Amino acid sequence: MPRPVQYNTNSKVKLVDLPESVMGEGFMATKFEKAITLARANSLWPLPFATSCCGIEFMATMGANYDLARFGSERMGFTPRQCDMLLVAGTIAKKMAPILRQVYLQMAEPRWVIAIGACACTGGIFDSYSVLQGIDQVIPVDVYVPGCPPRPEGILEGVLRLQELVENESLRRRNGDEYKQLMTSYGIQ
User: Fold this and answer.
1) What pTM was estimated for this model as a whole?
2) Which residues are annotated as a binding site?
3) 169-178 contacts: CB < 8 A, separation 24 or more?
4) Annotated binding-site residue numbers for [4Fe-4S] cluster
């Protein structure tokens, strides 16, 4: 039942009380969290880490025919401190693994990672001592995009999956024990 309208005696502004169903426990917090996650999901700033043929497909994804900008990722950043979505496309040699990890650690928090192509996901056809057999050995991966190389449609699908993940992620997830254990398992504090 709505409460009666109240008037502020110092001015002529009418203060209206909201019904209990609207003012229920956590109303403002949940709506605010939904607004934040929606904004995060639709304004991901990508940082490309492209090393081989998957990088060419990523360039095609940014072009006019596929236009990744339609999904809020038009601001391509080439400095990790200004980006929150790392796109690893191509073969990662074991000598490059520490650099990839350093780039990941320099990114703004919260940060997300997409592994593009068979080489970034599993090492691809390069089953040798010098190639990292999946970047998830060095940094946590949120979305895997398979293919050798994947088509631009696959990369777009990966970005859409990441947007869905970000939109449904709680703001408190990064402070939870499960996330801290994940970071500890990668040696990240």
Assistant:
1) 0.79
2) 53-54, 119, 148
3) 169/37, 169/110, 170/33, 171/33, 171/36, 171/37, 174/109, 174/110
4) 53-54, 119, 148
